[in-house]
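Batch job 17 of 40 flagged for manual review because the log was empty.
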Amino acid sequence: ANWFTEAASSCLGSTNIARFALDHGFSVDYASPRADGGGTRWLYIGDLNVGNTIIAWSGATLTDAGVWVNATSSKTKKTDFAAVDSREVLAKVARLPITTWRFKEGEGEVRHMGPMAEDFWAAFEIGYGPQTIADLDARGVALAAIQGLHQIVQQKETNLQQQRREISMLKRKLQAIEAKLGLK
């Protein structure tokens, strides 16, 4: 394996590229996060780490089964927390247009289901902008909506139990009245 640096442009427009080439011809271009070529970003692609095909500096991995694991979800890696009104999220999800669709290019007849990024952004204004939906944000919205739905179900269950108690009390009163009137 060999390390070398070249002054070329990457697809991201960076002119500071470090390339790591494996002896069997595999190479990864990676733009440095700093102009001097330093930084700590790296990406491993290979078969030496059992169970993972790709490992990133952030801790995110692509398992051999094809599952992306976002290892940077720890609260120690986050800031600027804000509470979420899960019932409001549920209401927005309920209004979110969900359709099936196909990509114009690249996947043939494969159909997908979900909202359009523009609608998702208009509803929640989270993520990277109106052209994308990050899986992390979609999962967060889904979990918040589930919590909102759970709150509604719990409230309805509480109301139902109260109504059952009231019905039971009214039945006892009716039976007492019927007994006094000799109707039963």
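Reviewer: the log was empty due to a logging misconfiguration, but the result itself is present. The longest strand covers residues 2-6. Unflagging and moving on to job 18.
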